[in-house]
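Troubleshooting: if your tokenizer reports a length mismatch, compare your output against this known-good record of 494 residues.
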Amino acid sequence: MAALSELYKSAAVRTLETQAIERAGDGGWGLMQQAGQAAWALLQQAWPQARRLLVLVGSGNNGGDGYVLARLAVQQGCAVTVMALAAGGPRTELARRACADYFAAGGQLQVFSGQLPVADVVVDALLGLGLARAPEAEMAQLIQTLNASAMPVLAIDLPSGVSADTGAVAGVAVVAERTLAMLLPHVGLYTGAALNHVGKVSVASLDTAPAASAGLQPCAHRADAADLPRLLPQRQRDWHKGRNGHVLLLGGDHGTGGAVLLAAQAALRSGAGLVSVGTRRLHVPALLAQCPELMAFDVRQGPLLQARLSAATVVALGPGLGQQPWAEALYAQATQAALPLVLDADGLNLLAARPQPLPGAILTPHPGEAARLLGWSTAAVQADRLAALHALVERYQSVVVLKGAGSLVGAPQALPWLIDAGNPGMAVGGMGDVLTGVIAGLLAQGLSPLQAARAGALLHALAGDRAAGNQPCGMMPSDLLPHLRVLANPEVVR
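Known-good structure output:
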């Protein structure tokens, strides 16, 4: 099994498959045997007590992988049922050969008639990378029946109905407990709706020489917990608060002072040396009572704000900002200041109303804000999150964090990063305000905009995972703050 840090689209996977087949000279038979063997090995590892197997096979080579697994299971004495749709017999040469070997081992093939036999584990070998459109008719019925059964599922390549390139689910899709991707990790397994279907993902590289994949171009890097220490800023022992930067946060219109407070606390917990907050006068006492480390002030006067901007290292605009004239005035001054800029929430909505390139800025939209920034629908953004990220980067010439399940980070002339962390408990108001503060705090410490966005998105997601534990429901954004402090502390450079 492989755990690779680069993610690929299906075209690259098919290229690697072709290269491996040409090198082996056997038409792909050996590769199919390896795929079936890898899936069988993972099934035995994940469900060591399983003796009754149901293998759902399609007509293509993904079905062939399923036939290989089924034959191996029969030879190990398992009770195996292989099931296909009425018109789902093997159609490729390799699948027919694998099916014949399964029959020779004593196996039989059943046709789906609306019900599924009870099994300890179900193997999904229906579609694989061959998904061209949403499952229809009998295929959709089979998938719905499988999901309703609540039997554990191992998906080969990817759960049927999930797009390997986008993670989108156009209709119904198998809900798997484990997914085994073949050859390379498919980008669609790590973002969007796919996360509701893939379960735990593994990758089987099979017998592909390293040289075979040398010319393949990944479409994204994947970042997880192991990457965090090298992405965070490293402190020297003699550093002082000035070396850690000064974040100026602007926001908190009437009734939304909590948003800018969350962002400010997150900036401090992420290591910023100083944090100022420009907000409404009525919020200043409450902010200072809650967090005396802040420098909070009434931000009504233009000259006062300009002086504060001159003293800052980074400006972050948006949490609780609103879209009234007060907010528009702050937006104008912040976007015109010669400072690194983090833009979120209503700051993004003001940008969407008057689109302009913001080179060097960091934009942190959720899918709805991304849709407004692009003039798309939210559904279109979610249908291809990677394409939406590229469009945002191109349009605004900025670093962009497209938030959501499997957050994406992009920048001009840079390969995107996918954040392989986070959980559903983070779907609550205020969580984005914490992310704004985290990114601003890291940016103030000297990271580049792309470095700060990448490290900040990962740090934020991992803090959310620590805060959630096994109880994500009811988690609040403030629950992340103590975990940010722990995770933001790589070993001090000596």
